[in-house]
């Protein structure tokens, strides 16, 4: 990780560990030799980062923002949405994934919605839409 990222992570660690400014500056001075991360060498920054980890800080990776869903993921979301919509209007008694998977299995011979192909998902979506339109 580069210098800028390391400084940012140290600041996140300060917030995560709820360190007040005085305690934080003391930690920087004792482990990095300076009271500011901007004045520290890369080696000193790594020492401060190690000290933060010893205090219990864990780096958490962030999910990639706006990651586009694949076509099949969108189809599965649509199947779930239609299933829940049918449950909301009283056509489906059991709104669980287990019941939805049973419906998918009945029409595709595949046990779970996550395992169906895009073509099978399209067929299930159309079947659910027709069911919904018959009611409305």
Overall shape: rod-shaped
Number of strands: 0
SS-based class: mainly alpha
Q: Name the helix and strand elements from N-terminus to C-terminus, one letter apiece.
A: HHHHHH
Number of helices: 6
Organism: Limnobaculum allomyrinae
Pfam families: GemA (PF06252)
InterPro entries: Phage_Mu_Gp16
Protein name: Regulatory protein GemA
Would you mind describing this structure in some detail?
The protein has 136 residues and is mostly helical. The protein has 2 domains: 3-54; 71-135, no CATH class. Helices cover 64% and strands 0% of the residues. It is rod-shaped, with a radius of gyration of 26 Å. 18% of the residues are buried. The mean pLDDT is 91. InterPro entries: Phage_Mu_Gp16. This is Regulatory protein GemA. It comes from Limnobaculum allomyrinae.
In a few lines, what is going on in this structure?
It holds the Pfam family GemA. The protein is mainly alpha-helical. It is built from six helices and no strands.
